[in-house]
Amino acid sequence: MADELLKSTNLPHDPERATLEGKNKFLGFWFFLGGETVLFASLFGTYLALKNSHLDGVPASELYGLGLVFIMTMILLTSSLTSVYAIYHMKNNDHKKMMLWLGITVLLGFSFLGLEVYEFYHYVNDYGHGFTTSAFSSAFYALVGFHGAHVAFGLGWFILLMVRNRKRGINLYNAPKFYIASLYWHFIDVVWVFIFTVVYLMGVVG
Amino acid sequence: MSATANKKAGFGSVLWDYLTTVDHKKIAILYLFGGFFFFILGGLEAMLVRIQLIQPDNNFVSAQFYNELMTMHGTTMIFLAAMPLLFALMNIAMPLQIGARDVAFPFVNALGFWLFLVGGIVVNISWFTGGAPDAGWTAYTPLSIFSESHGLDYYSIGLQIAGFGTLMGGINFLVTVITMRTPGMTMMRMPLFSWTTFIASVLILFAFPALTVGLFLLTFDRLFGANFFDPSMGGNVIIWEHLFWIFGHPEVYILILPAFGVFSEVISTFSKKRLFGYSSMVFATVLIAFLGFMVWAHHMFTVGLGPIANSIFAIATMAIAVPTGIKIFNWLFTMWGGTLRFNSPMLFALGFIPSFTIGGMTGVMLGAAAADFQYHDTYFVVAHFHYVIVGGTVFGIFAGLIYWWPKMFGKVLNETMNHWFFWLFFIGFHLTFFLQHFLGLMGMPRRYWVFLEGQGLDLFNLISTIGAFFMAAGTILFIYNMIWTALKAPQAPADPWDGRTLEWAIASPPPFYNFKQLPLVRGLDPLWIEKTEGNGKMQPAEPLGDVHMPNNSFIPFVMSVGLGIAGIGIIYQVDNPMWWIVAAIGFIIFFGSMAVRSLKDDLGYHIHKEDFEKEGDGSNG
Amino acid sequence: MKGLTSKFKAVGALMTLALILSGCGEEFLSALRPQGQGASDILSLMILSIAVMMFVFVVVMVIYVFVILKFRQKKGQEDFIPEQVEGSHTLETLWTVVPIFLILILAVPTVQYTFSLVDTSPQVSAEGEEDQIWINVTGKQYWWHFEYDGMDVTTSQELYIPTDRRVFLSLHSEDVIHSFWVPTLQGKIDVNPTGNRNEIWIDAEKEGVYWGKCAEFCGPSHSLMDFKVVAVSPGEFEQWVKDMRNIDPEATPESEVAAAGQEVFANNCMSCHANGTSPNKIGPNVSNFGDRERIAGVLEYNKENLIEWIETKGKDMKPGNLMTSAAYDLSDEELEQVAEYLMSLSPSEITPENANDNEYIESDLSDLFVDEEKDESSQEKSEEESEEDSEEDSDSN
């Protein structure tokens, strides 16, 4: 029976939910994302409460550059799409193409992260907007930084999965793992949409 | 594996077995001992607090030490005693009640326990390293960010770790209830304890992340120079209060709902009647949980949120009395017309009803926002929440422990000693806390290190302290009973209480695979149905076949220890950057073992049907 | 007729309840023995809620006791199997609907009082709007500071108010969260270091010294952060204000020892402790120290305690207090002198004794507000300044 689990032939259409373990993982991860939603909601609340407490520092409206953030948003949205392709190929039991699209997702993720690091560097050096500058800056880095940490964790997760499964095909044992990793990636993406709106757009507008 | 598991084993192999176990029944035992250890610790702290308050102007402990004691009493009792003891009950009973062979994520279950234990130990290490946390269990900012010792760093990091464990446990139970029920066990046939476990897990899932964020912000403020709560840097101290109570109020229901579940089981069993109004009980549970998320600001009536907000939260708070009242009357009418047996779990249930009714009444009184201006932060509140948490949760825990003790250890606790224990604890409890209602109204605020002479507060404080000694005596008796039972008591039968639900259909203690064949459930109280309409045994829902079991794993323990080490490193890096090395080692252990877990295939193993056949028939399971 | 008697019975029960409760605690401290309208209102709400809850409790207990007595398992009945009742829609509806009504009974006055207790708009009578006495309250670890807005009066630890009139408080903390609570007069309100200043009113119906407490945990000496509210008749209050605003901090005390103490005080204590109306509030204002009821809010008022306090900087008398960081080092003689000086500070004839002497002097306090209109220009200016101050405050917060 154990062999059954690791075979890559004759996979059902939804390999991620074909076993009880897979179903459990699928469901459990959804619940986990529910908890994560509360986590980010709390951070958003904190940010909104403190966003005008910039003291002598630069206020939000003068700090953010929408151009860069827009590019970051596009990159992350695209990476969400490419992870959908990866899962699509997983369901078709096409290991090679899944790996390809996952690879692209990871690359996009890294470029997002790189831009975010550049953005933070820019704020700290050109605006004196460090983590300890004011309550506003702490709240900003806490919210956006938490998201960035999630992105980094997601990238590590994808890479680990790809390395582990590079030589073997899709099976009932690893399909749920790929699936929930991509679920996580979508979640991060959705959170970013909110960050883009609540932090950056609303920040620039007023 | 199946053959060796039952053999007598040496201490080393038992220890290794428990360090690596993923069996929900063994994890329940771990939770029990972990939780009980902290319960004793919190109890000792409470005794010192009460001794300090035995007379006016007492100087038994210093002001600083008193604050550490009362902070740690609250923190320990809520996070490190009540929660894990409830988790012990959930772990032992819920999977059996729904006819599952284990929980959905056995590995995560073990991880949850070890995280809790490491977190609890981290918080308590602070006693030996220059002072425990001293800002109250609520750790209100900015007092908590001004506190000079490392105590509050231990608090925030330790609770963070324990909180992760709880969150994982919650998700685990949720999925278990949804996917692991045996054939025929529909949601509306689930025993009420499984229901309350499910609902409490929902609360955990949505409440704990708020605490996670609060603790992160506190840690950042204290250790990394952030300014969330620092008034001079534009911070806002009220944010902490909101985050804490958005977590903290649902936490109250996380504590009380499983206790309600225990009482529903116990009252029904010992009245020989099915639960009166089962569906309204389920509905009331869901409603309490739902409302529980909308009342957090009733802890903040005096903060100055304004009369509009206060009125809304006041009415929402009072509304919770309605589903709670439904439950009380349903229990009373479950007993009505039954034949009551006063075994010790039932005694605790009967002690619970008046005690919790008083706690609920004072809850409604506190909900009246205007009147809360007087009650708030006085001994009235102290009395109220002890009536709810001791009179509700702790009574529930004891009822549940005694009730399910045979399922955990295969022995029934000594009934005579348990009766003595109940009466000592019950009388002591009311002696300690009833008069505190009046102390509060007579002008004694809570968290007072001393009260002055000539304020008319002396007598009631003295009586309260005397009561505390009764409770301590009862608890010591219970510990003695545990040891006595382990050494002297005979093996318990499968069904010592004439039970009604699935856990009583299998041996005490159950075999590690629980059910040889999954049982077929024909209605609410499935065993009772078979007792009255069948042959007294559960009918199998599947032919005898191979059973899939998870492998034991040492990784949860290693991961948790790694996180603990990382936490200590983080606490001390403010003093000396070299501690970053310790933190890094901790994180490498943590993430490394996490990576090992995901890189190594863990497919579990099978108990083959031939092995079952060799073991013979036994009781159905 | 029957309805009427039952009504009487209900009222009688409530009265009995009120009577029992009023036996609880001391007159100067207990929330159950209200001496002001705020506390009276709250007590009436408490009694209503207790009555409603007692009704529920009695119903529960009657069923409970009956069930336990009636349905216990009897000998020889071990095999009896009771009827397995599923539930009862009638009963379940009953105990859902009745509590809803009970809660509505409670909710109405609750909302009403929730608004009225923090309503700080001026009282309106037939003669028009009453002039408001506003006092800025500052909470600090572990003492209280009071500034009478527009009256040029500053004091610490003991708050003088006129009876029979609402006094309005605006509260703010300079360190951690405290909570201002005078149980006999009014419910408590938090004193926050950030966000809006909280506002509340208090009033006393008769003269007396009422004990106040800090009700929000604020550090090691949280339990020692007591203060007093001294309620005197309006005429006496007027006198007190006039005396307090005319303090001459430079005036030499009569006794020689005290005069020497003044010198010591000026050299060692003045940087934190003000005498008179100076805005310095690093430490408590000592203007009327000679009239205090207690030393440091909690200690018996005598010279030994005062000397010990100054000598040890209150290290063990009020653990964690911030005076311990003061740099002074006084000789025994100097201690004696400072103590003498402080105990001689009694700028007003009105002291806590006047709160207990049953002498009632009428006044509409209009004198205290006349000044305001007279030098309106200067007043306005200072108000503007203080507004600016508070704006700065809120900015930096």
Automatic annotation (TrEMBL), chain A:
Record has Transmembrane as a keyword: yes
Keyword Electron transport included in the entry's annotation: no
Biological process per Gene Ontology, one example term: aerobic electron transport chain
Subcellular location: Cell membrane
CDD domains referenced in this protein's UniProt entry, alphabetically: Ubiquinol_oxidase_III (cd02863)
Alphabetical UniProt keywords: Cell membrane, Membrane, Transmembrane, Transmembrane helix
Membrane-crossing segments per the record: 27-50, 62-88, 100-118, 138-163, 183-203
InterPro entries assigned: Cyt_c/ubiquinol_Oxase_su3 (IPR024791), Cyt_c_oxidase-like_su3 (IPR000298), Cyt_c_oxidase_su3-like_sf (IPR035973), Cyt_c_oxidase_su3_a-hlx (IPR013833), Ubiquinol_oxase_su3_dom (IPR033946)
Principal location class: membrane
A Gene Ontology cellular-component term: plasma membrane
Topology with respect to the bilayer: Multi-pass membrane protein
Highest rank taxon of the organism: Bacteria
Domain Heme-copper oxidase subunit III family profile: 1-204
UniProt xrefs under PROSITE patterns: COX3 (PS50253)
GO molecular function, one term: cytochrome-c oxidase activity
Pfam families: COX3
Family: Belongs to the cytochrome c oxidase subunit 3 family.
Protein name: Cytochrome (Ubi)quinol oxidase subunit III
Organism: Allobacillus salarius
TrEMBL record, chain B:
Pathway: Energy metabolism; oxidative phosphorylation
InterPro entries: Cyt_c_oxase-like_su1_dom, Cyt_c_oxase-like_su1_sf, Cyt_C_Oxase_1, Cyt_c_Oxase_su1_BS, Cyt_c_oxidase_su1_bac
Gene Ontology molecular function terms on file: cytochrome-c oxidase activity; heme binding; metal ion binding; oxidoreductase activity
Residue intervals of the Cytochrome oxidase subunit I profile domain: 10-522
Pfam families attached to this UniProt entry: COX1
Bilayer disposition of the protein: Multi-pass membrane protein
EC number: 7.1.1.9
Catalytic activity: 4 Fe(II)-[cytochrome c] + O2 + 8 H(+)(in) = 4 Fe(III)-[cytochrome c] + 2 H2O + 4 H(+)(out)
GO BP annotation list: electron transport coupled proton transport; oxidative phosphorylation; respiratory electron transport chain
Segments traversing the membrane: 28-49, 69-92, 104-128, 157-180, 192-218, 238-263, 275-296, 308-333, 345-371, 383-405, 417-439, 459-480, 554-572, 578-599
Protein origin, superkingdom: Bacteria
Primary subcellular site in the record, as a coarse category: membrane
Compartments, record wording: Cell membrane
One GO term describing the cellular component: plasma membrane
Keywords: Cell membrane, Copper, Electron transport, Heme, Iron, Membrane, Metal-binding, Oxidoreductase, Respiratory chain, Translocase, Transmembrane, Transmembrane helix, Transport
The protein's enzyme class: translocase
PANTHER family: CYTOCHROME C OXIDASE SUBUNIT 1
Similarity comment text for this entry: Belongs to the heme-copper respiratory oxidase family.
Role: Cytochrome c oxidase is the component of the respiratory chain that catalyzes the reduction of oxygen to water. Subunits 1-3 form the functional core of the enzyme complex. CO I is the catalytic subunit of the enzyme. Electrons originating in cytochrome c are transferred via the copper A center of subunit 2 and heme A of subunit 1 to the bimetallic center formed by heme A3 and copper B.
NCBIfam families, per the entry: CtaD_CoxA (TIGR02891)
UniProt protein name: Cytochrome c oxidase subunit 1
Gene name per UniProt: ctaD
UniProtKB/TrEMBL annotation, chain C:
GO BP terms in the entry: ATP synthesis coupled electron transport
UniProt EC number: 7.1.1.9
Gene name of the encoded protein: coxB
Function recorded in the entry: Subunits I and II form the functional core of the enzyme complex. Electrons originating in cytochrome c are transferred via heme a and Cu(A) to the binuclear center formed by heme a3 and Cu(B).
Name the UniProt record assigns to this protein: Cytochrome c oxidase subunit 2
Domain of life: Bacteria
Organism: Allobacillus salarius
Statement: the UniProt record of this protein carries the keyword Glycosyltransferase: no
GO molecular function: copper ion binding; cytochrome-c oxidase activity; heme binding; oxidoreductase activity
Residues spanning the membrane: 41-67, 94-115
Annotated segments matching region Disordered: 349-397
